[in-house]
What does this fold into?
Amino acid sequence: MENDIYKTLAAPSEETLFKEKNSKFFGYAFPVTTEDEVKTVLEELRKKHHSARHWCYAFQLGTDADRLYYRANDDGEPNNSAGMPIYGQIQSFDVTNVLIVVVRYFGGVKLGVGGLITAYKTSAQMALEASEIIEKTINVAYTLKFGYQNMNKVMRVIKEKSLDIVTQTMEMDCEIVVSTRKKNAPAVLEAFKNLYEVKVS
It folds into this structure.
């Protein structure tokens, strides 16, 4: 696997339902990129399922293997019986920038820790299976500053390296922000450095 590709969700999953001894487990998977988004989603689900007993979840943020950030929350279930089994599914599907929430309605019969682990794991797995998982590239952006006389040269490099133009501003001077896959970044930087009158940052 390329080190500049990661897997995430195209969109929130369908709601899934897993039943065990009268308890109901509703599973949801969401693409997220910040903890604020996580909080918003949790608030919405707490409103939607206001009579549920537990809203257990796990999320992982980040695209760089060295800087992944995750959290797992048992929300009142026995220690490590909910959040970690959910997080385990995020790992086994190898996805990131993802939040999985499992909402439990207690059915009157205790499942025991083993039963809970299985139920939360299964529910998280179902939510991920109900999601469209897509591959994205980790991109690096460069800001190019140059005078109009260098426009053609810059545009040629952008075209040759098939870079994405993120923004462009044409005033006294030109400023273009381009984006490229991480693995291509060194070559792109080199190409622009060869154009002496172009500043790259």
Notes: The two ends are 29 Å apart (CA to CA). The first strand starts at residue 5 and ends at 9.
